[in-house]
Amino acid sequence: QAAPGSQKIKVVVSRHLGPDVMPLLLDRPELDVVVWPEERACDRRWLLENIVGATAALVMLSEKMDQEMFEAAGPGLRVISTMSVGYEHIDLKLAAERKVKIGYTPDVLTEAVADVSVMLAFMASRNVRETAELVARGDWSKTPWAPFVFCGPQLSASWINTTRTAGFIGLGRISKATLARLIPFGFTHCIYTGNPHSKPNLEADAQTAQKYGLQSVRRVGLDELAAESDVVFVLAPGGPETRHIVNESFLRKMKKTAVLVNTARGTLVDSDALAKALREKWIWGAGLDVIEGEPDVRLDHPLLKESRCVILPHIGSATNETRLGMGTLAVNNVLAGIQGKKLPAELDT
Ligand code: DGY
Q1: Nearest residue by C-alpha to atom 4 in ligand 1
Q2: Buried b (16+ CB within 10 A) or exposed e, 114-126
Q3: What is the pLDDT of residues 1-30, one digit of tens each?
Q4: Which superkingdom does the taxonomy of this entry point to (predicted)?
Q5: 142 and 85, same structural domain?
Q6: Strands of the 309-311 sheet, one edge to the other
Q7: Which of 63, 113, 148, 157 is 20 to 30 A from 166, comparing alpha carbons?
């Protein structure tokens, strides 16, 4: 509670967080909560003007927290809390220099994003974009059931394919939750690429294999991952180190029947190379929840022309339960940060 006459603590929030979450901030008399008033992504100019003098900023992944923003905020900024698990929009080096804590929202969205990852894998392999669009256009009768019409490769193990390999670019929390979902579909092997700064851990791999009843779990290089996977899940952090990790060379090495799924960040996949790979049938299909340059994806985008490319507008974490969890955690990060406490989900900067 702010003592009468004492200054309130300013918290700037770049998006209204809904009736269940906002009161956690608005009901605190000691806070001066300034919220972006519109139902669209926060205007950068508005944030630059309103972050001035803030102790905390609660932002979305669309807000670039760079030098200009830190300078606009001034020296009183103690915490930036992003309502996302990704944090490549925040200059972490600057945050460390200025002793600004960074809060993010891991764990609460793991299951929701894993659901969408698996959904996109099956949507891409089973031609869902092309076939659902055909029904929506009223054209079903033009292509009725026929023995091999609309067929795609079977991702689950079948009488022909008794082994199935899931490949992960990055084996973090969401990848593991995705892997767990693939087991009942008969997946037998898991391969993954690790963070180049960490060492392989054969014992942990053996434990993961045992836990899921897989024949093997192996850390491999990118080339092997591309060549052996029936489905490649791109689930690494964004940022300059991983930019275009999936490029023409990677895509050319993939199986013709394989699908690529990206539910991480658009920057990891070279869109032009992927469009070429789909057009020239180096791979079967792709399921994307994110694209480089989103949300500015116009009708002339090369990937929109590819009927085997299912594209969703970044809905990986979009369940009511998950967004409630993310919003609540983002607020709790703010509250801990302004009290100088360790954040419930704090990034090591
Ligand atoms: C995140 O939290 O980073 C996700 O991409 C948002 O859904």
Answers
A1: 84
A2: bbbbbbbbbbbbb
A3: 555 656 999 999 999 999 999 999 999 999
A4: Eukaryota
A5: no
A6: 216-219, 189-193, 165-169, 231-234, 259-262, 285-288, 309-311
A7: 148
Domain identity same for 126 and 73? no
In a domain, 174, yes or no: yes
Same structural domain for residues 103 and 210? Answer: no
Using only C-alpha atoms, the chain has a radius of gyration, in whole angstroms, of: 22
- For 122-132, the pLDDT digits (tens) are 999 999 999 99
Q: Which residues contact 327 (CB under 8 A, 6 or more apart)?
A: 17, 18, 20, 21, 83
In a domain, 1, yes or no: no
CB-based contact 58:13 (threshold 8 Å): yes
Tell me, what's the ipTM? Answer: 0.96
Pocket test for ligand 1, best of 58, 59, 60, 61 (most atoms within 8 A of CB): 61
Alpha-helical regions (H) of 126-165: 128-136
Q: How many domains does the chain have?
A: 2
* 3-class secondary-structure state, position 280: coil
- Give the pTM: 0.95
Peptide bond into 200 cis (omega under 30): no
- Is the minimum distance from the CB of 61 to ligand 1 under 6 angstroms? yes
* Substitution site in 58, 63, 85, 115 for ligand 1 pocket (most atoms within 8 Å of beta carbon): 85
* Residue 314: active-site member: yes
